[in-house]
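Narrative summary of target 7.
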Amino acid sequence: MTLFIYGASGAGVEVYDLIKRNRSIGGKYSQIFFVDDFQEESEHYGEKRIHFSSCEEYAGRHDAEFVIAVGEPSARRTLFDRVASAGYPFATLVDETAVISPTASIGEGCIIQAGAVISSNAVLRENCAVMLHAIVGHDALVNNSCVICPKATVGGCSTVGEQSFLGLGSSMKEGVNIGSRAIVALGSMVFRDVEEGATVAGNPARVTRGGVEHKVFQGRKEGTR
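Modeled conformation, tokenized:
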């Protein structure tokens, strides 16, 4: 089986490390490629870095899986849809040190990094990234293509809308709803519902004016982080 890691910057390297330190995952893949459409095809961390258009030269759709490894939620969605349209399946990668409740539901293409906790009856939809030591509380719902940064906490019985970003060390009270495409800045404490497309920061978190593009990583191309 071949694994294509779509993204070759920080998030891509973290996924590569996850695979290498978890024998149960790494043993599944005979070859690994980084996919990056904005760099020349070359060697990267001892593996080949190729363009998406080159993937079929190395593995067929029945012999390969993809994982999206970028930190921008909107880019995660774009790349996920691109891969799905091409007919490739997705890997779901869970670090062996993560704590996953047997009643939790983990969607296709999710990444759950070391020390993360997914609590009872929590649901992660497809293509989510839950980073180092992040927590998703009981009965919480995290929708498609969300990013939960290291040490962030999703409160129990809460909902996170699709393509939302919870920054490093942020926390949300139980029962709070975060709208789609929202950004919660690092270290923020969310006590009230957050509207769709809003950026909030502070303790308590308040709406603040974000960038014109409403992206977490301003000015970066899709697939580069």
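The radius of gyration is 17 Å.
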